[in-house]
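User: I'm putting together notes for a lab meeting next week and I want to include a structural view of one of the chains we've been expressing. I don't have a solved structure, so I'd like a prediction I can at least talk through. The sequence is below, exactly as it appears in our construct file.
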Amino acid sequence: MSRLDTSSSCSFDAVDKLMSTLQLAVHIPTFLLGLVLNLLAIRGFSTFLKKRQPEYIATSIYMINLALFDLLLVLSLPFKMALPQVESPSSAFCTLVECLYFISMYGSVFTICFISLDRFLAIQYPLLVSHLRSPRKTFGICCILWVLVWIGSIPIYTFHREGKYKCFHNMTDSTWSAKVFFPLEIFGFLLPMGIMGFCSYRSIHILLGRRDYIQRACIWTIATNLVIFVVSFLPVHLGFFLQYLVRNGFISECRVKQSISLFLQLSLCFSNINCCLDVFCYYFVIKEFRMGIKAHRPSTVQLVHQDTVSTRG
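Assistant: Thanks for the context. Below is the predicted structure for the 313-residue chain, given as C-alpha cells.
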C-alpha cells in the first residue's frame, strides 16, 4: 500500500526487495503461531459461554470477537506476502484480499476500544450497566462492529489504477485524497485511541483508590495493554499520514519518499504481530475465569474484577 507511482524517476525497488525478505521472516512465524493460538483462544472462551455464567458471558463474547478479527488477519498474511510479488490476477480478488486485511486491523481497533469502554463502565457503574451486558446485546454490538468496518472499507479499495498493478501497492491519488484519508485517521484510529486512553486512565485512577489487592494488581494489565495498542497501531497511522503528504505533493525529495515508504511497510509488517500478542491476554483471562469459578465467588465485585483483568486496553 505504500509504493508510489512507478512512473516516477524515484525507484522503490530496493525498499520492496528488502521488505519482501523481511515479511517472510516476520509473517511466517506470525501466521503459524497466530493460527494455532487464536483457534485455541476461541475454543477456550467458547467453553465459558456453554457454562452460561453471567459474569463471564459478556467478556467471553468480546474476546471471541477479537480473536476472530485476529484470525482473519492471520489468514490474510499468506496473500499479503505473495500477491505484492506478482501482477494482480484479478482486480476483484485483489480488492477482496485488501479489504479483509484492513477489516481485520480496524475490527481489532474498534473491538479493543469498545472492550475498554465496557470495562470502564463496569468499574465506574457496576450496578447501572449490569443489565446492559446481556449476551444478546453484547453479540449485537459485535455484529454492528463487523458491519461498520466492512462498510468503512468499501471506498478505500475502489481506487486501483486501470491495467497492471500489484495488490497492496500502486493505489491512485484518489485513495490518498483528504475526503478518504482524514475520516480514516480520525474515526479509524485517533478517536478509538482517545476513548481507550480516557477509559484506561479513569479505570486506573479508580482502582488506585481501592484497597483490594487483586483489583489493584489489574492496573499493570490495563497500562500494558494500552501501551501494546499504541505501539502496534500508532506507527502505522503515522506512516499513513506521511504517505498522504507524499502523495499530495508536500514531500518530493526522493530519499525522503523512500524512507517513508520503508517506514510504512515496516509499521504494517510489525503491527501484524499484535494478533499474537493478544493471545497472552486471552489466556490470562481464562486463568482468571477458572480461578473465579473455583473460588465460588460470583458477585458484583468479582464481575468488575473479571472485566478489568479480561479486557484489552
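A couple of points you could mention at the meeting. Residues 13-310 form a domain with the Rhopdopsin 7-helix transmembrane proteins fold (CATH 1.20.1070.10). DSSP finds ten helices and no strands in the chain.

User: Perfect, that's what I needed.
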